[in-house]
Write a structure and sequence with these properties.
By secondary structure, this protein is mainly α. The chain is 82% helix and 0% strand. It contains 23 helices and no strands.
Length: 534
Amino acid sequence: MTDKKQILKSASIITLVTIISRILGYVRDQRIAVLLGTTEISVAYQLAFRIPNLFRRLVAEGAMTASFIPVFANYMREKGAREVWDFANKLFWTLALVVAIITALGMVFSPYVIHLFTSDVGSAGGLDLAVGLNRIIFPYLFFVALAALAMGILNCFHVFGLPAATPIFWNVASIIFSMAAVWKYFKSPAMSLAAGVLVGGVLQFLIQVPQLVHKGMKFDFGISFSHPGIRNVARLMIPRLFGIGVAQINLLVDTRFATASIMPKGSLTALYYSDRVMELVLGGYAISVATAILPIMSHQAAANDYSGLKKTLVFAIRLVAFITVPAMLGLMILREPIIRVLFQHGAFVAESTRLTARALLYYAIALPGLATVKLIVPAFYSTKDTKTPVIVAAISMVLNVLLNIVFLEFFFKRVQNGGPALATALACYFDFFALFVIFRVRYGALGTMEILRSFGKISLCASIMGVACWLGVHYTEFAMHSRFLIQLLIFAGMILGATGLYLGLAWVFRCHEIEEIYGIATRRKRGGEAYVET
């Protein structure tokens, strides 16, 4: 199977499962919005969830997974089955010990952690609630870290569907705990929601255990900080806490500025819901592609096939741009209809929609940058280069802080609660372009002109689609309709029409991406799999 077909096949499986997960994630978020709105309780809950979730993305799905996969790919290529699984077992128990210590410290020092990452959470009662919720949610980190390791192992065997499906169980647990039949047994709905997060994290790990056992993992107990493979993972992981997690660190910086006293009430919650809409697009295909290419690039780097690695990277960048550029314009133009249809119910009122739509406007600008950073950072890591992403990430974080200060102090009237989102967007683009230029200088031509030609055609098609979206909002008078069913029908019609128009334009203008997807999808399978177990 060619690398392109492997990428498309794996990304399609992940996308299908992720779409189901995102739909359930929307139901979960809609339940939270109905129960908590943008009130002080909602801010406390979002803050309590955001902190352990940040550690999850850094310690687990960010730095650890990206560090583990290249090392494990080398073991699969060069070692026997016994050594491969000895490494996996020892890493599992060592990671469990380390994350257990982090979890315990996070729970004990929760008040200090909350104070560190927020400027203002409201009243003393709101602060106490945030601390209590944080202590309930923090153990979620332990289970989700183990789930991320399981995902990395299965991905190396080209098993993508089950790991991608684990968030479904997390969302289902959260939805169940948001129901009155469950939360009435807790002190408040926020407490029940926090418990649902923890239960969902447990399920994310347990659901992957049977498949791991089937592949050969026995979970033999053994903790080792001296195992060569574990030391390699740790050596790569420490700097990657900054490299691949730069977007998440920037998110924490945004949290600090979003809770400044000058910000409108509910700004942090507005950032959360706008970020969730962004994740719907990123998770729908961009992250799916990034997840699919990392094992492939790691195997290519292990074989010193840098020509193939560069082709894989460029193909992924073009493919993701084909999705994210029109999505960016669609989110910007349809931001208010999107938020009104998805969230304006119960405690989530019209003012909540305006706050969230403003944040979404600026977050949407970041979409192509966020997506391509998720592709090029693993390309560096697959070559065992850790210094470059660390340096660029550090500069990007400093830039994000400076931009947040500028927007808060000098352009607040213009951007208001969208300042943190805009700062993140600009920092992400700096991160991508800096890494792209460095990678090209270091490893040779990447087909920049090919990327630019594709981007030009994509931008043209997306711009025409954007004009059509604006006309649709204007002439359907979406804002004038108060009944939800009418809003939903108009919104669905605009989304389907815009999608059809964009794909039709892409075919007319002969965008290579749609031709490649169609050609690969209809071509008969040739050859064997990209990796065969031995």
